[in-house]
Amino acid sequence: MPRPLLARSAAGLCGEVRVPGDKSISHRALMLAALAVGESRIDGLLEGEDVLRTAAAMRALGALVEREGPGCWRVAGCGVGGLAEPADVLDMGNSGTAARLLMGVLATHGFTAFMTGDASLRRRPMRRVTAPLEGFGARFVGREGGRLPIAIEGAAEALPVRYRLPVASAQVKSAVLLAGLNAPGLTTVVEPTPSRDHTERMLAHFGVPVTVEDDGSGGRIVSVQGEVEFAGRDLVVPGDVSSAAFPLVAAILGPGSEVRIRNVGLNPLRAGLIEILRGMGAEIGVEGERTAAGEPVADLVVRGSRLHGVAVPPDRVPSTIDEFPVLAVAAACADGDTRMEGLAELRVKESDRLSAIARGLAACGVALEEGEDSLVIHGTGRPPRGGATIAVDLDHRIAMAFLTLGTATPEPVAVDDGTPIDTSFPGFVALMNGLGARIEENS
Ligand code: S3P
Questions:
Q1: pLDDT at 443 over 90
Q2: Active site residues per annotation
């Protein structure tokens, strides 16, 4: 059942919140804990639908995965190479990360598994991940373009791989590294532009030999030693900066706002949005910097600010990749033009985000130009009119970005379906309303 929602303008946001656990780190924590020997306790795990799909998949593959309390999970792993053939199709729901990383794990387990997902995941490209995984000796039979549903025949006698990524993709990098765990010798990924390095950091946290070197031209060479046994470890998942982005931007857009967001993961390869917003004039403070399970964490303190347009060059894109919907919302309220380039990857996310952003903002009265891989937003220094209903098309971040816009526009902004929000940010509406937003069911 779709859940239509509507956001009305709010008079500034105030208060203190914690956002749910980081989605990228949560998937990796469950997968690596399932490949470890013995028990791991994970605290702060995101209990959104995407991560629950990974939990169910690891269980179907033989690991013991148990919820002990809110955000607190216990995993007893099977050891590298120790997963078992699943009895049924693995349904990864809406999650590209779950599907692609798990394909990596399965590529070097010598059994056949079948994988599917929802309508959004079934239209997403998978050749980018199956092509390098074939190098290990795995075979994939999917639909056109390698799309789901797909059969994965893992290599019984895997070979290690050296792979140069054609696009910056942490999912493809991680899939290859996870496959390399059960191949003899060294598996190496060369990435032309650094992408989020949660897998590398978590492998190191579990004591797996992993090396990261500069390639001399701005890229990185990441290698992992295969066929190692590693023991379970406890870890704490920080709050998701990609979820924090919504209350953060809503607070910036609200005159007189003052919001503290506690315990946010600030991995430099994820936190591009904060730097860009600061460059646009946003007042964002970082307090109490610390480290948890190898990841930098801090509290964010944000105040209502006047924004001006900026240029966002292509080299900013990987560290901001999931934040373009909400960044575009901020740009729509800023004074002057914001130019964003190198956005081709946005077309293959949970929806074609570049066109969803452009269509939605135009319907709200924003002047803009959408290119093949670029977007120019002409801001006037005031929030646009609003007064539109946005088609979410199974994309959680499109839903949350446009509800964030509706907290600032004179006329309400509605979304036709808020249910996808639960894939990454359960409790989004209550958290925003607790800060003073006015998001409600739209009957
Ligand atoms: C992710 C990597 C990114 C990102 C996605 C999560 C990850 O995708 O958009 O939401 O956890 O590795 P790509 O690897 O396709 O860039």
A1: no
A2: 322
